[in-house]
Amino acid sequence: MTETQVLNYALNQFAGIDAAAFELSAPYWQRKTYGKGEFYNEYKNVCKYLGFILDGVFRTYYIDDESAEEKNVFFFSKNQVVVAYKSFVTQTPCSYYTESMTESTVLYIHINHLTELYGKSHHWERFGRLVAETAFNLAMNRAEEFMFRTPEQRYLELIRNHPDIFNNVPLYHIASYLGIQAPSLSRIRKRMVGK
Amino acid sequence: MTETQVLNYALNQFAGIDAAAFELSAPYWQRKTYGKGEFYNEYKNVCKYLGFILDGVFRTYYIDDESAEEKNVFFFSKNQVVVAYKSFVTQTPCSYYTESMTESTVLYIHINHLTELYGKSHHWERFGRLVAETAFNLAMNRAEEFMFRTPEQRYLELIRNHPDIFNNVPLYHIASYLGIQAPSLSRIRKRMVGK
DNA sequence: CTATATTCTTAACCCAAGTTAAGATCGTCA
DNA sequence: TGACGATCTTAACTTGGGTTAAGAATATAG
Fold first, then answer.
1. CB nearest to B143's CB, from A132, A142, A148
2. Residue B49 has pLDDT above 80, yes or no
3. Most exposed among A50, A68, A162, B95, judged by the fewest C-beta atoms under 10 Å?
């Protein structure tokens, strides 16, 4: 299966993009590989591309002014869209950094081309709406994790729902994602051995 | 100014809905008043209406299975849209309760009518997109408050950004919204007197 | 204006996460 | 294999929120 076929299949699964609709977009997709630590988009940059991850893991993080600490906000992995959503849809500077945590491969499309596709086919409009809903769900899930769950519950849910991330990311990055310090995660893990 | 004019003006401000586009929607808007404690939408119900608050304050809350506690998720007040967004766009049962905290007046429209309007005018499509973006921003802001701010910082930002809510809602509801218990909020307030 | 309910604060104690620094473990590559 | 860097755990101590229950302040209604 070629990379283009992988993309076509994934877009079909995600938003019912059929062969004809995909054909419209074909000239616009570009391919890029990222080294470990390379940025997909940086703080204060406007995110101009929507990416589809063929392989690899990305993280979006915030740098706290006061503590100067990095706080992980989202992880994105294989067969998912990677984008700084708010920056992308409003074309305003981003508050976050999004970097590759591994060697990664991405197919990406420019916002102008995507906007063009919206006008050409309701399949692509549907895609746009589904990306918006996905972004909302991602943000809302994150809010709910913090509002309703303890760090220990968040840790267990991460393992259950995102084993791919848990297995490919150092624990100190996991801790940051869970909103706690590395020693706290160690204590949680130790506590849980008894259970 | 009639209530309809208020609505027209607000929709124009929010999404550039002009007189002609508003005219299309006019037959669909209905009016309802809510007593204190009355529900806009309940847990397990599908949210079928998008509301515009002419007057009053609503809260959306979650009931924690374990603690059986109510946890406030969002407040909605005058001149804002009130809706259980995820339930509304996916037409699936809601995880939350949304209730009126005061005597309130709402103009609301059924999802089927709104969908109809999407097809009739790009102004309404634009409105739909902006509601989606608003919902995303609301959820993302909430996630960011919990990921990056302390309870004290969240308290100060609530006062600064939403004085209308701060001034019209009992402190124990504020505490719940901030993700802490009432005694903790009291301690925070006490600490701050010195500053 | 008092009685009553609601809301807010306080106190005492507990517990989990933060902080800092040291040391253990793991991986990797020369 | 052995040494270095990266990652993970542990310890000791601090800090702030949770919990419970009591009491103070504030609204509201009769």
1. A142
2. yes
3. A68
Q: Residue A9 is part of a domain; what is its CATH number?
A: 2.60.120.10
Which chain B residues are Cβ-neighbours of A146 within 8 angstroms? 143, 146-147, 179
Read off the pTM.
0.93
Contacts of B85 in chain A (CB under 8 A): 136
The half-sphere exposure of B190 on its side-chain side, counting CA atoms within 13 A, is 6
Residue B177 CA distance to nucleotide D24 C1' (Å): 25
- The predicted structure's pLDDT at residue A194: 58
Q: How far is CA B179 from CA A69, B69, B70, B94, in A?
A: 22, 11, 11, 21
Question: Is there a contact between B38 and B103 (Cβ–Cβ < 8 Å)?
Answer: no
pLDDT of residue A173: 98
Cβ-Cβ contacts under 8 Å, B119 against chain A: none
Question: B72 and B17 share a domain?
Answer: yes
Contact B70/B62 with Cβ under 8 angstroms?
A: yes
Residue A173 near residue A185, CB atoms below 8 Å: no
CA-to-C1' distance for A79 and D3, Å?
A: 39
Domain count across chain B: 2
Same domain assignment for residues A48 and A133: yes
A102 and A24 together in one domain: yes
> Taking CB atoms and an 8 Å limit, are A140 and B86 in contact across chains?
yes
pLDDT tens-place string over residues B127-150: 998 999 999 999 999 999 999 999
Same domain, A186 and A109: no
Say which nucleotide is closest to residue A188, CA to C1' distance.
C16
Contacts of A186 (CB under 8 A, 6+ apart): A171
Domain end (from A127, A146, A165)? A146
Check: CB of residue A154 under 8 Å from CB of residue A188: no
The Cα–Cα gap between A89 and A151 comes to: 32
Contact assessment for residue B62 and residue A147, using Cβ atoms and an 8 Å cutoff:
yes
Q: What is the pLDDT of residues B62-108, one digit of tens each?
A: 998 888 899 999 999 999 999 999 999 999 999 999 999 999 999 99
Q: Give me the average pLDDT of each 10-residue run along chain A (195 residues).
A: 88 90 96 94 97 95 91 95 96 97 95 94 89 95 98 97 94 98 97 74
- The reply to whether A149 touches chain B by the CB within 8 Å rule is no
Determine the distance between A133 (CA) and C17 (C1') in angstroms. Answer: 34
Of B89, B142, B179, the CB nearest to A133: B89
